[in-house]
Amino acid sequence: MTPNADRADLLLRQAGHGGLWEWAMEQRRSVRPPNWGELAYRLVVDTDGAVQVKGEMLRKWL
Prior knowledge:
Blueprint: H1 3-14, H2 20-28, H3 36-46, H4 55-61
Helix pairs in contact: 3-4
């Protein structure tokens, strides 16, 4: 993982969401999962702005 992915993983774990992988799979678990851009926005929200990434990069991390 990249340093930003590691940071996202750590921040999500500290917030009780599991790691980055677990968080992303939980977010996408629905009949109509959000696109990667929406998921990237949710990551910004859930990390209080500490991790800002585009949807395509988030997809590559996972």
